[in-house]
């Protein structure tokens, strides 16, 4: 038994070494960096530049619209799965979107560096808006590329971990390091430098590998032709479902576009509030574009399973309007039908995990700085050191540890351990909220306080307890994040990876947005300590759901006769 365990351990280390040596892993690190850099520059560092340029806060509020591109990116994810860009399809199904978006982002950042924000704010905001949509589009394609190219050597677990490492590094480069560089050479030169980095990544990305197997450009056409084969749903039934789903999606997209037009053209006092829009209208957009279409997809899947409304023989090829409807059905409805049909009632459990697993850190991010600066009364320099430099290093260390755990003990075990650790770190903050005596004693005992006191200028015992608290939290977030992205990537189909992953990840983002209002009210009424106790219980509840999902996956694999270790392939539903 011990010999078998040792052999498995050696095999895991060998697999890890092979994965890290694969060229896909190197490009994944590069793409992760390219994915995180625009987000940091458009939603963080940009506001520092606008503040120095003395742009008023009311006008800067328009730039908060940029966040909508990331929050609702799933609305155009079907285009990424279906549409080929003329003259670029030879690059590959995903690269035809990734490379142009990276080059466009590089050109936008360089152009912005040539503008003066205060006097050319119109062009400045237009470029930032286009850049945000290009960045969100790049994210959709990169996430799909990661899922598509994963194999037994460069597994989805390792690729997901490396992707997040690149993403976190870019947040450091575009955030804290960007501020330092701008203080020395100026904002225009800083943005020109960042634009040059993205142009370089886009150029290098031309050599990134594509998915192996069936030619990528033929996959969509084959799926459309298969819709009219014997045993598939009758086109009349499909078209009715498509009409309902299309109407729901068109309405959602229309509402988002109307909101953006009002925000860009109305007088400042008449503009709608972006936060209120996300909180009040966001859930209905999710209902219209995910929940109701999923119910329709479930009905279609059940009809097919029961043998109802099916073609008895192959239908002849079609053209014109019928051909267009088949392609639209493939892009918009078929990804949901496949997902719901494969997962069945297990989808309820999966959505429960998606909605709860990352809720603690998704909500907490908004209140972190008010807690550090207001409640605990630390300085900006203290927080920058603890969260931006030391904290980012701790997250990267957590990601590395998470990647190792994924390889050695498996995806679900790592997902469970990461969830429990992330939940328990809320207790560390609860201690900080009532004075931090326990964290201070621990920091003193392990010698961490002495090390921080050696930092010239700001190092002291109080900074040590904040730093070690953030370090533990970020280490846990790194482990949980590595496992969560790997798990989320593993449950989607490679055939529809762009749409399915974008839909699931959007739920993770939205639940954090919706919970912030309630959490903020609780902080005001009861204080931070009670909030941290509550978020601990929420995190532990998510861990219980992970245990149930682990049991479900084990049963599914046993029923399917799968005994091999997790390799990132999709798990068949019961």
TrEMBL record:
The question of whether Transmembrane is a record keyword is answered with: yes
Keyword flag Transport: yes
Task: Please identify the protein, giving its name as recorded.
Answer: MFS transporter
Question: How does the entry describe its membrane topology?
Answer: Multi-pass membrane protein
Q: What is the lineage of its organism?
A: Bacteria, Pseudomonadati, Pseudomonadota, Alphaproteobacteria, Sphingomonadales
Keywords from the named record: Membrane, Transmembrane, Transmembrane helix, Transport
Q: Where does this protein reside within or beyond the cell?
A: Membrane
Q: Where are the transmembrane segments?
A: 27-51, 57-76, 97-115, 121-145, 166-185, 191-208, 241-261, 281-302, 347-372, 384-406, 413-430, 466-487, 499-519, 531-551
